[in-house]
Design brief:
The protein is of the alpha/beta class and 402 residues long. It has a domain at 1-39. It has helices spanning 2-19, 26-41, 57-62, 71-79, 83-92, 101-111, 129-142, 157-178, 184-208, 223-227, 234-252, 255-258, 278-284, 307-317, 324-338, 352-356, 358-366, 387-401; strands spanning 48-51, 66-69, 120-124, 146-149, 263-267, 287-292, 342-348, 372-377. It has a four-stranded parallel β-sheet, sandwiched between helices. Strands 6-5-7-8 form a four-stranded parallel β-sheet, with helices on both faces. Helix 4 (71-79) packs across helix 6, helix 8 crosses helix 14 and helix 15 crosses helix 17. The mean pLDDT is 94.
């Protein structure tokens, strides 16, 4: 079922791109490459690793491993409205209905044999202990070896040294399973591609700051966190270039002036994954999401002479690896750089990052005169959606901003 879904998506998008060979079509190219990744995960002839969100996917790719964070599948099941069957499967086995639905969906998929069996599993302590617990569950279900990267919250010399030694151990772990040593040449190429993509991301985000912004509420949704899966590859560079070209084209043709932008918004954490007319609502209200919290380059360029240290620094610099106070400082800086008027924080059920930090985030943003709308919503399980209530609260928030 899943292989066919991704295969049909690849063929459909490729046909559309072939009909418009001169078009930029950044979003289509992005979805095409993610669908190709999905197809590889389900093709049964790849070395597969299921991972935590902040795993070093560029390193794994350079070692011939097709890897992905498990939440990607949870989001995909929600977006295709097929998650309900898998939620029920997980809940029937005792998984609590108030736990994170990303993880419930993929655990249900494991129990229903709808997830490809991995060769090994890599957990990360960031962004959440629930994510670490779910991949540990995977390891037990599949009876596979499990490697954990314990990511410190402090950006110090000792923390970097501690994590870089773990990254080096990870290389040995992967090599033991693939029976292939790490190729310095392939790793160098992956890090060079990563650096090219990172610079293009900086350019993209700089263009998004333009007033009015050339982005719409949909273009860069969940972009930063998902692009990590493609960073380090030539395809990742090409996709970033396409988005940069798209934004430059919009500015050059004046398209960004044609869109409504009475109010500029930040979206905190992840978007709502199932079909929900949030973007259309905001359009009708004259508002635009110009920045997502995780659409940000927080790391230094990768150093091919010190790859493990560079990867460790990058992993620690990601907002979800930081303490809440550091994460809030990053949000404040983004809010000022993008000149936003307000922020929407979907307090995803069962998520400590979204719900546990909501008060601190609201206070931190209020300190720079940016109001926050905290939405109590399950971003993955649409069975829990109170659609009318959410719409009313968004409308009231926009009226307050006006």
């Amino acid at each position: 079922m899943m292989y066919e879904h991704f295969d049909n998506t690849v063929k459909g998008i490729q046909d559309k791109l072939n009909q418009d060979p001169e078009g930029i079509n950044a979003r289509k190219k992005y979805v095409l490459e993610l669908s190709r990744l999905g197809r590889k995960l389900y093709s049964k002839n790849e070395t597969i690793a299921w991972c935590g969100v902040t795993a070093p996917f560029d390193l794994l790719s350079s070692m011939g491993v097709t890897s992905c964070f498990v939440e990607f599948v949870g989001a995909m099941l929600a977006s295709t409205q097929t998650a309900g069957f898998f939620f029920e499967g997980a809940e029937d086995e005792g998984f609590a209905t108030d736990s994170c639905a990303y993880h419930r969906a993929v655990m249900g998929a494991v129990l229903k044999n709808a997830m490809p069996e991995p060769d090994f599993i890599i957990g990360t302590s960031s962004p959440c202990t629930a994510g670490l617990a779910i991949v540990e569950n995977f390891a037990h279900q599949y009876k596979k070896d499990f490697f954990v990267l314990n990511i410190p919250q402090n950006y110090t010399k000792d923390a970097i040294k501690y994590l870089s030694s773990q990254v080096e151990e990870l290389v040995g772990f992967v090599s033991a399973h693939t029976k292939k040593p790490l190729s310095k040449e392939k790793l160098d190429l992956a890090l060079e591609n990563f650096n090219l993509s990172s610079q293009l991301l900086k350019d993209i985000y700089e263009l998004a700051k333009t007033k009015p912004s050339p982005v719409d509420s949909r273009l860069l949704r969940d972009f930063g966190v998902v692009m990590a899966l493609l960073m380090g590859t030539k395809a990742g560079v090409d996709i970033c270039q396409a988005f940069k070209d798209e934004l430059n084209h919009r500015i050059k043709t004046g398209r960004h002036h044609a869109s409504k932008e009475k109010k500029r918004l930040m979206w905190i954490q992840n978007r709502i994954q199932y079909p929900f007319p949030m973007d259309n609502m905001l359009d009708d209200l004259g508002a635009k999401i110009v920045v997502d919290e995780l659409n940000n380059v927080t790391w230094e360029p990768m150093d091919t002479d010190n790859p493990y240290e560079s990867i460790a620094k990058r992993m620690i610099s990601i907002p979800f690896s930081m303490s809440t106070s550091e994460r809030i400082k990053t949000m404040q800086n983004l809010a000022l750089e993008y000149q936003i008027d307000g922020a929407i924080n979907p307090c995803h059920w069962g998520c400590r990052q979204g719900t546990g930090a909501r008060g601190l985030i609201s206070k931190g943003m209020q300190d720079i005169n940016v109001p926050v709308l905290n939405l109590e919503i399950d971003c993955v399980d649409s069975r829990n959606l109170a659609k009318g209530q959410i719409e009313t609260r968004v409308e009231a928030f926009m009226e307050m901003l006006s």
